[in-house]
Design goal:
The protein has 15 helices and two strands. With about 350 residues, it is mainly α.
């Protein structure tokens, strides 16, 4: 009888590495938002500002590239099918959770608005969310817009949209193209990854899954070298295309490394988190705001902690992620919070909300 390894899994699904990537990415997003809220109440860590330059390279490009991988067939649909199968879900989630966020901040003191400098409880800002995204939910709005853009270019050669979005990304990441709205800026910067995923999904899967140990090491070392330079010479970010190169490098390193890490049994929890990444994304801001509120009253109490900034950010990230998963286990019973509730005028009863499967 073959002895089963306690460290290496033999039951890894073919594309399970994608969920591991999503797990790592959503944890990084929670950490990033936690640091923003903590900084606003006086908790800081030396060097965290520079570290964000590197940490910000991976999560959103990874999510948009993965989203693109699952949108390649939309070019074959009519607009009616596109609306029914994709657009109405994205628009519904974006509007619903933006309203819930607005109502939340009417009750809870706004320690830090999680948007582009707008008041979270401003009713005018809420009315303008379809043209001026003001919260972290711009990601869902981006999926709505990106899907329309990709579908609109369905008759054009792939290189046309890819070239346009790459140039726009390079200019925006360098600060040369600025809309004065964080959400819109990031949408312009990251559209190229959604487009690349949708156009080249087969090539991406093949390249990632056929990369051997040596190729993975080269990818990781290549990004590590870039990260070291970018961290200590932040002005490089002002050169058009530098951030895009860094994002491509970190995606290559992260994706290929994930195909190996997913085999390690102790890291199976990352896959678990990745399967629930959308649920965590939708609720984590509320959890962070509630946890940051009491810290705003006694920030000096944390001064005696060694390495207080990184320690508190790490602890908050773990707690917020766990609480978000626990909270959504109950919230998903209310299916309309995560799934468009009407289909041809009939209420949709979902046994397992689509948000939980994303």
């Amino acid at each position: 009888m073959q002895r089963r390894s306690g460290w290496v899994r033999d039951d890894v699904g073919r594309r399970e590495w994608v969920d591991l990537v999503k797990g790592v990415a959503i944890i990084m997003i929670v950490a990033y938002h936690s640091s923003l809220f903590l900084n606003s109440v006086g908790v800081d860590a030396a060097g965290i500002g520079r570290a964000r330059i590197v940490l910000d390279l991976f999560p959103m490009p990874a999510f948009f590239l993965i989203s693109g991988l699952f949108h390649t067939r939309v070019r074959e649909w009519s607009f009616a099918d596109l609306w029914r199968r994709r657009l109405r879900q994205y628009l519904y989630l974006y509007v619903l959770w933006s309203v819930l966020r607005f109502l939340f901040y009417l009750v809870v003191p706004n320690v830090r608005a999680d948007g582009a400098g707008q008041a979270a409880d401003d009713p005018v800002a809420l009315l303008l969310i379809l043209v001026w995204p003001i919260s972290s939910y711009w990601f869902i709005y981006a999926l709505f817009v990106f899907t329309i853009v990709f579908w609109a270019f369905r008759r054009m050669p792939p290189w046309v949209l890819l070239a346009l979005t790459a140039v726009a990304s390079a200019l925006t990441s360098a600060g040369l193209l600025d809309t004065d709205n964080v959400g819109l800026n990031r949408m312009i910067e990251y559209l190229v990854f959604f487009v690349a995923g949708a156009y080249f999904h087969r090539r991406i899967y093949t390249a990632v899954e056929r990369t051997g140990p040596l190729g993975t090491v080269v990818a990781v070392v290549g990004f590590a070298a870039f990260a070291a330079v970018a961290t200590f010479v932040p002005r490089l970010g002002g050169i058009p295309g530098v951030a895009l190169v860094g994002q491509v490098l970190v995606l290559a390193a992260g994706f290929t490394l994930a195909t190996w890490l997913v085999r390690l049994r102790p890291l199976a929890w990352l896959t678990y988190v990745g399967v629930r990444s959308l649920n965590i994304y939708l609720v984590h801001i509320f959890v962070i705001a509630l946890l940051a509120l009491p810290l705003a009253l006694v920030p000096e109490a944390l001064d005696s902690l060694p390495g207080r900034g990184l320690l508190v950010i790490g602890a908050m990230t773990a707690v917020v992620t766990a609480l978000s998963i626990l909270l959504t286990r109950y919230l998903t019973r209310v299916s309309w919070l995560f799934v468009y509730p009407f289909r041809n005028g009939v209420k949709l009863r979902a046994r397992r909300p689509a948000a939980e499967r994303s």
